[in-house]
């Protein structure tokens, strides 16, 4: 079997890449270990509207909740942010399967199996050899296939968020807003979240930096639940590891997209939008490369502009975040009140927001100055 492009992994990044590569006229094969990608769900399922605008059209059946804003909580301080265009909470099972079906409809083929070996021009799956011109690797955190191809994808514990999440019901919380909880003692090196899933259900979870915590993510989550939602009924538990340090992808010579390239946001841990963005770029560039109309250096330039520059800026902000104490979080929420309280927000630019916060708060400015210079 011969294909021009093989996409390894059928999550949001892989299926998006396969769709655009097939639309670009290439012969495309998608491979995944599971027949139904996205199951089990190990994700808070939130995605920013602005970050995926123009890249993917969401089927209404893929959306659990259309968000109208959010709140940030630190100690006794809370700021409400009215942000009607902020984004969505997805149904990841339907979303992932829908993206895969869309790629197949565009002409990509799909097979299920375990890749046992891979080289620069072929792989072995289910005992069969498949030749290709270009591989696109979307096989998740610490990409096993990238390691087979000689690129180190190992992670240090200081470079990850360890996450735990309950699907809960029976709580008093808005159905169209997310909540973020900041507490250095209860959530070391991370934050908690409440994301409405509709029908009275919520994703309630947290991510911590393991090297800063004596407790596991699950132990921290149980304590957080006892404090905020002791009466909540737990319907399901999920968890996982989310990278907080992007790979030096440009040195790999490979298409490493989504979690395989560690293209998750170092602050929020969100990965869906960057999976879509990197898949969109990779699929389009790979289709042009098989026709001799582009090279991977052009892809890396675009990836830096669209994804990597923002991630690397957020890595610097995370270095500040990890130093903040509870009194700093309270100060942060007070500053956010000055910026957003009782106002309708149309857009939030992270870089502009950071510098606005540092201008308003001398306390946070001093912390940021020490770490950013």
From TrEMBL:
Q: Which residues form the Digeranylgeranylglycerophospholipid reductase catalytic domain?
A: 161-242
| Database matches in Pfam families | FAD_oxidored, GGR_cat
List the coiled-coil residues. Answer: none
Q: Which GO terms describe its molecular function?
A: oxidoreductase activity, acting on the CH-CH group of donors, NAD or NADP as acceptor
Q: What is this protein called?
A: Digeranylgeranylglycerophospholipid reductase catalytic domain-containing protein
Q: Could you read off the lineage of the organism from its UniProt record?
A: Bacteria, Bacteria division WOR-3
